[in-house]
Amino acid sequence: MLNINDIIERNKSRPEPPEVTNIRENIIKSFSRLEFQEGPHKYYIHNDDGTTIEVPSVSGVTHEFKPHFDTQKVASQYALKHDMTLEQVLRSWEENNVRATNNGTSTHLFGEAYMHFFMGNLDKIPDVIKPQLDRGYLVPYSGKQDAILKYYEDLYLIDDIYPVMPEAQVYMGVNSDYSDIKQYAGTFDMLFAYRTKDNEYKLMLHDWKTNKELESGFNRNVHEVVTNPQHKNYEKWLDKYGINGGMALEPFTELYDESFSYYILQLSAYSLCLEQLGYEIIDRRIIWLKDDGSYEKIKLPDYTQKLRQALNKNN
Fold first, then answer.
1. Which of 259, 271, 41, 300 is nearest to 168 (CA)?
2. SS3 at position 141
3. Dihedral angle at the C-alpha atoms of 46, 50, 53, 57, nearest 10 degrees?
4. Helix ranges restricted to H, 119-253
5. Hey, is 124 helix, strand or coil?
6. N or C: which end of the chain has fewer CB within 10 A?
7. What are the tens digits of pLDDT across the range 167-191?
C-alpha cells in the first residue's frame, strides 16, 4: 500500500507544474455558478442576472438515446416464466438496485478520497472515509476499494501524469461558441493532465465503473437475430423488436443498447464541457472495478462531435 510519506516524497521529486495548477483553478472558476444538490441529484446554474435554472444531468441526456424499457411488461413476463408474482419480481429488482447503488456510492467515495490522498490533501478526504486512514495508509475495506488502491499504485510509477481533481463538476453553456448545444451538467470521477514531449498539457478523463457487466448479452443476441434472415427466430424477433432491436436510438444505432455504449456518450458529454474552455481531451477511459481487487482500464472512442450534433438545439 502507498503511505502518505510516499506521496510526500513523490510530490517533492515531481512537484506539480504551474500549468496543472492553472488548469485546476480555471476549471473551478469557469464552472463556479453550478450547484449540485446531492440528495435529489439535481443540477442548477445561477445566472449573472440573478435567475437560477435547473438543467438535466449528463446521464439523463445520454439516456434520451436509450430505447424505452417497459418495466411492468418485462416484469410480468419474467414472473410468468419463473413462477413468481409481479410484486416479487419488482421487489427483487428494487433490492438489487438499492444494493448496487449503495455499493457504488461507497466505492466512489473511496475513489474520491484516494485521489485527495494521492495529491497529499488529507484534509479533503470525506469524513465517512477518514476512519480508513491508519498510520499513513488509506486502507481499502472491499475488493473494489482494493482495485482503486491498485489503480493508484500503478499510476504512482508513471511520470508526466498529474492529478488535477476528483469529482469534477461541469456544465454546458460557458462559451457562446457552444450555444447551439442543449444545456446539461454532470460530475465525473477523475481528471488528469498529461505532459507531452512538446511540454504541452492535455487532459485525461477517467471514470470509475462498478457494474457487474458492461455489455448486454441479451441485446447483442437480439441484434444478431434481427439482422440475420437465416436465423430460425428472424421473423418472430423482427416483428417483436424491429430491425434496430438491441441497439441505441438514432443517431447512435451503431451502438448496442447497453451500459458500455452510454458510458461512451457520457464521457464524450463531459469532454464537450471541457472543450468549451479550450482544452484538448486526449484520453477517455472507464476504470472497471472488480470484486477480486483487479481493474480494467478501458479506452473509449471519441463521440464528442457526433454527440454535439445530436444535442443541437435546432434538431
1. 271
2. coil
3. 0
4. 143-156, 217-226, 234-241
5. helix
6. C
7. 999 999 999 899 999 999 999 999 9
